């Protein structure tokens, strides 16, 4: 549904009916991260230096840190608890094996 390139041409972000936004590194084709949402993603934007990813899903918009670990940290703050293994797989898309990511927060 949505696609955009970073200003420097090094990254590509997509938004999809499958209710996710994705960030790719173009030189290698590597999927850097996948951000699941509750509704289809209708718009994406990459901020300066590819440090932020703007996402519109349903009637809401979010600005996510552009590094996968930043998304996990922001998600921990939003949830107020540890991520489940399923949530970890959704956010990290196989980039790293599951680990506890939300120090000091209650478990799943």
Features of the shown structure:
108 residues, alpha+beta, Thrombin, subunit H, 2 domains, 4-stranded antiparallel β-sheet, 3-stranded antiparallel β-sheet
Summarize the structure.
This protein has 108 residues and is of the alpha+beta class. It has helices at 68-79, 85-92, and strands spanning 2-5, 11-15, 20-25, 30-36, 41-46, 52-57, 60-65.
Q: Can you walk me through this structure?
A:
With 108 residues, the chain is an alpha+beta fold. The chain has 2 domains: 2-66, Thrombin, subunit H; 67-108, no CATH class. 19% of the residues lie in helices and 37% in strands. The chain has 2 helices and 7 strands. The protein has helices at 68-79, 85-92, and strands at residues 2-5, 11-15, 20-25, 30-36, 41-46, 52-57, 60-65. A 4-stranded antiparallel beta sheet has the order 1-2-3-4. A hairpin with a 2-residue loop joins strand 6 (52-57) and strand 7 (60-65). The N and C termini lie far apart (33 Å). The model has no long low-confidence stretch (mean pLDDT 84).
SSE layout:
Elements: E1 2-5, E2 11-15, E3 20-25, E4 30-36, E5 41-46, E6 52-57, E7 60-65, H1 68-79, H2 85-92
Antiparallel strand pairs: 1-2, 2-3, 3-4, 5-6, 6-7
Given the structure, what is the number of helices?
2
Write down the CATH class of the largest domain.
Answer: Mainly Beta
Q: Give the count of structural domains.
A: 2
Number of strands: 7
Sketch the topology as an H/E string, one letter per element.
EEEEEEEHH
CA-CA gap between termini: 33 Å
CATH topology of the largest domain: Thrombin, subunit H
What structural class do you assign from the helix and strand content? alpha+beta
> Order of strands across the widest beta sheet?
1-2-3-4
């Amino acid at each position: 549904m949505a696609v955009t390139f970073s200003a420097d041409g090094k990254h590509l972000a997509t938004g999809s009916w499958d209710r996710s936004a994705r960030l790719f590194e173009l030189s290698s084709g590597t999927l850097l991260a996948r951000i699941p949402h509750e509704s289809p993603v209708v718009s994406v934007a990459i901020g300066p230096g590819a440090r932020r990813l703007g996402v519109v899903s349903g009637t809401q918009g979010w600005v996510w840190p552009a590094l996968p670990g930043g998304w996990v940290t922001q998600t921990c703050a939003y949830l107020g608890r540890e991520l489940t293994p399923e949530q970890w797989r959704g956010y990290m898309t196989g980039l790293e094996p599951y680990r506890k990511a939300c120090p000091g927060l209650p478990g799943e």
